[in-house]
Amino acid sequence: MPGGRPATVSVGLEHLKTISLFYEDCDGQKHISYQDVIAVLPVTTLQEPQEHDYHTLLYLEKQELSGPETPEPKVVAKIEHIQDPPPSLLERFRVAGVPQHLSVPAGPNDHCNIHVIVSIKSGTCQADSFFGNVVHQTFEALGLSGQQYEVHRTTSERFIGDFTRDILLPRANQGIQQTVLLLSGDGGAVDIINALLRPPMGIGFVKPTIGIVAMGTGNALANSSGLLQDSTKGLRSFLRGKPHNLPTFTAKFSPGSELLTNEGCRSEHLPQEGGYFGVLHGAVVCSWGLHASLVADSDTTEYRKYGSERFQMAAKELLYPSDGSKPHAYKGRVTLFRMNAGGREYPEYLDRSEHTYILATLVSNLEEKFMISPRSKSLDGQLRLVHFGALSSEEILRILGMATSGGGHIREAVVGYQTIEGMRINIQEPDSRWRRICVDGKIVQVGEGGWVEVRKESHNVLDLVIDAPS
Q: What CA dihedral angle connects 294, 300, 304 and 305, to 10 degrees?
């Protein structure tokens, strides 16, 4: 702050969405976009009544860096001391104090029950920098000391699942309230869900609360929950929001199905349920066909460097095979489980045996502009299916292109779009490449003649902080 005295504030016209700061000491001024505001915090350290209303404005500043190894600008949290902010600014950005989900008391032996998990390799590997330059500074401005929360940096693909099994689940079973802020993609939440839904779950289980600072590639959960409506990657929502139940689904797989890891080079057994079939839980999507193949083929270190563009890059070979053939038609039988007006479930069979796209989802957007399920609302718990049969490359691109323009694809005659309770896919593919299933970014390879069955999950094990009416 120039000089040292608080700046006076004016708010631009609504369509401009900017804050203007004026410095009396030096006739200077600064303009800050609404998009970059993290929070406006009241100043509570003043002992005597004051002539002015003092607040702290916390916002993001991008610092351009040069060099081939720095493709993204450095983002840091900055502070301005302001006086007499207008009511419209306070209504939009004020955080009155430390939110309840960050006021969780420590446990026995001063064990922290507030955790921050930094997923080092998520997306374009910016999580650690964002924590140090933004999240840590924000917590300090709130008055949270480093002794009140514990920071964990991932060291392997299993880290978050192991953390949940060893720390989060035992304490939840003891009835202890816990909060976890994830600097990660969708996979962080999914790893927690899968570990929490494995038995044993105690009778006094208390749902942990998570917040998401989105650092992944697609960030479907964050985009669909309204966390990415500004530049703070969900941090503003974490400070202003409240916990809401996070709906989930369960996918069961035929015996012999395997989870593919290490860019598809390794396989491992799925967690078992009842000692018979493998199980995965998700909160975003379960797919077979083009979407699953795209996710699987693009999940390499080389592709991940390109962020969400990796999907378009991987799509070229799937839609336009190098041997000149047509896109693959995925062979199998699909059964939907639906609910009638009387509340009774009934099966409905898709009347085709060749498919391009079979995707069940709990969210609206798989990426910021890719609205696959336009009728889905934030955390509404409705499982919806988007599907279509074997089509030409051009027709597939046309339909999926409409999903990036407001979700108009669901009005196409060749596209099916239904609310379902679940579905079962019996796969009839001899080549293992076409038997891959995607569950929230994880890839499962089903055995020949195998199947997957997806159902909405009835157990609520996790709350997600979003800035929405309670």
A: -140
Strands of the sheet containing 28-33, edge to edge, are 28-33, 18-23, 7-11, 74-83, 54-63, 37-42
| Residue among 337, 328, 333, 338 at smallest CA distance from 350 | 333
464 DSSP β-pair partners: 210, 244
Phi, psi of 331 (to 5 degrees): -100, 130
State how beta strands 209-214 and 179-184 pair.
Answer: parallel
Measured CA distances, 356 to 303, 318, 331, 450 (Å):
23, 11, 9, 18
Q: What is the pLDDT of residues 43-91, one digit of tens each?
A: 876 555 566 788 999 999 988 766 555 557 889 999 998 988 889 899 9
- Compute the distance between CA of residue 424 and CA of residue 455 in angstroms, rounded to an integer: 9
Alpha-carbon torsion (165, 166, 168, 169), positive or negative: positive
CA–CA distance, 219 with 77 (Å, rounded to integer): 22
**CA dist., res. 436 & res. 296, Å (int):** 8
Buried b (16+ CB within 10 A) or exposed e, 100-130: ebbebeeeeeeebbbbbbbbbbbbeebbbbb
Tell whether omega for the bond before 200 is within 30 degrees of 0, i.e. cis.
yes
H or E stretch at 403 = helix 393-403
Q: Distance between alpha carbon 36 and the CA centroid of its chain, in Å?
A: 20
Instruction: Compute the distance between CA of residue 453 and CA of residue 27 in angstroms, rounded to an integer.
Output: 66
pLDDT at 3 over 50: no
DSSP conformation letters of 321-339: -TTSPPPP-EEEEEEEEEE
- CA distances to 134, 384, 410, 415, 457 from 418, rounded to whole Å, are 41, 6, 10, 10, 18
State the residue for tokens 């409506």. 229
Cα–Cα dist 148/404, whole Å: 42
Q: Of 187, 254, 217, nearest to 437 (Cα)?
A: 254
Quickly tell me which residue has 């450095």 as its tokens.
Answer: 74
Mean pLDDT of 238-259: 96
Distance CA 435, CA 448 (A): 8
